[in-house]
Amino acid sequence: MRYHTLLCRNSVIRMKLIDWLGIRSSIHRKIFIAFMLVMLLPTTLISVSTYYFSIDLLKRKVSESFLDNLAYNKNIIGMEFKQFEQIADYILYNSDIQKVLSPSFKSPSIQGYYDLQGAQQSLNNFTMQAFAVSNVASIQIFGDNGIILFTGASSDIYPNDEKFKEMSWYKQAVQTDQPQFRFGSLNEDSDGLVGSGSGYNPSMIRTFRNNATLEKLGVIYIKIRSDLFDSLFEDSNMKKAGKFVILDDNGQIVYHPDKSMLLKAFPGVDKLREQQGDHGSFITQDDQLMVYYHIERYGWWLTDSIPLSELLKDNKIIFNITIAVVLVCFILSGVIWYFVASGIVQPIKKLAFVMRSVKEDGLAVKSEYTGKDEIGLLSSSFNYMIEKIQELISRMVEEQAKKKDMEYQSLQAQINPHFLYNTLNSIRWMAMIQKADNIKEMVEALGRLLANSTSKSEAMITIEEELAIVKDYIKIQEVKYSDKFHVDFDIDPKLLKVKCVKFILQPFIENAIFHGIEPKSGTGCIRIQLKLSGNVAEITVFDDGVGMDVEQIMCEGHDKGNGTRFNGIGIKNVDERLRLTYGDIYGVTITSVKGQFTSVTIRFPVDADFEAGGPK
């Protein structure tokens, strides 16, 4: 009930709004409002679509720019850390160092002393060159046999203590032959998880093995300069933006312009790990455009981000300008469309005034608008309609006068058949008195034929009644022609009660006698057949007379489906009455061969009573 009340209230408000705008009573306002809506809706849609498209385009362009910078920085990192791996590879394959780290090496001996000094000298010679071209701070080798080799600043030396083998970094290093990079302090007794220390010391750790036997000999520890990333990205656009961040495989920050953020947990690392592919972008929960690149070899992430508010601050200006342009265009279009609508509506108003004046002045009005547009066409059509109405009224008056005259003549003509019928009745009584039976029968048949033509006014009779008329006509002609012809009937008795158009057989019997049998030498035969074909009654009148040419009864170019129409008056009359009554697919078909025969077929549908199982 409440919903119905609310619906009714909304309908009332809508109707009041329509009345207030005057849409119902003014075509001018209809056109004006329609034009304004057509102007406003697409313009608004285009403006909004363009605005959001520009935002999306800006995001893509910024993402592509950031990704290009990240890809550049990724290559720099890859090349730099590849140097660290190459340094470790050289040291691993040095025979002097391999020798002193062997389990069979005996350091207390004199030879062992010289071998140890040679290994240390090889390490020093190599690292002097490595330090000059790389960001290596120091190199320390921890042998499983207790030998420790070191090069670099003395402050970086790790004490020769078994405690270092219990550190998490050492356990991680011996589990794989791949280089392991870490950024926490070497003294950090932890599992290396995110945020597990405050000392920032980049380093690389790798297992040291025998070249021949692949036996584990120890661990090589390369300490990297702490200002590595600052020197790498000194001229990078990412650094200048202040948003460039590098994460290690544990998700802790290993590079950030704000040094206080180093080794802390990155808040969006879980979202990063959900991304597909090694690079891309997404919007964070705090409305930041985050762009990332993943270094698969080390499991690191390079990220850069920018707040959407900062990214889209110029777009707000564009949006405001767009709104202003739309409003200006809307106002200018409103003024233009108002005058355009006025130019369209004024001729319509004038034409409407002329149409309304028909009530007062009748048909003695005329539109004076003669423009070449649709309104001018409507005006000329209105004038034409008025002229035609005047002609129709004049014709109707004339036809009414003719109709009254025809009714008088029809009443007058009814006297003639009545007088003829009474005269025939007198002749019949004279024939009976004089015992002229042939004259009596002929007069009786003619009387019945005349009575059927005048007594019944309906257009439809039964086939049985139609055959009775035909038989009376045949009886009259038999008296005239004696034994010139005989008639055979092949009638389906079930069809006798079917109704048909009145007087459809007599013209064809007459043609068969006069044009078929009479010119023929000898006796002729006429056969009348009645049968049912589907739901169509077919009456065929066949005679074996002299036949005829089609041109005798047909003429070309009329409205039958086969392009022809009957020319004989009686035949034409029957054919047209059948088509008008039942449709163009029914009517009369004539087949004739000159000198042999003529066959006429009359087709019409049976009535509904017969189809329902009426007459049997």
TrEMBL record:
Primary localization: membrane
Keyword Membrane found: yes
Molecular function via GO: phosphorelay sensor kinase activity
Gene3D superfamilies for this protein: 6.10.340.10, Histidine kinase-like ATPase, C-terminal domain, PAS domain
Membrane topology of the entry: Multi-pass membrane protein
Subcellular location: Cell membrane
Limits of the HAMP domain: 342-394
TM spans (from-to): 31-53, 317-340
CDD domains for the chain: HAMP
Keywords: Cell membrane, Kinase, Membrane, Phosphoprotein, Transferase, Transmembrane, Transmembrane helix
PROSITE patterns, sorted: HAMP
SUPFAM superfamilies: ATPase domain of HSP90 chaperone/DNA topoisomerase II/histidine kinase (SSF55874), HAMP domain-like (SSF158472)
Signal peptide: none
InterPro entries: Bact_2-comp_sensor_kinase (IPR050640), HAMP_dom (IPR003660), HATPase_C_sf (IPR036890), HATPase_dom (IPR003594), Sig_transdc_His_kin_internal (IPR010559)
GO annotations of cellular component type: plasma membrane
Identification of the protein by name: HAMP domain-containing protein
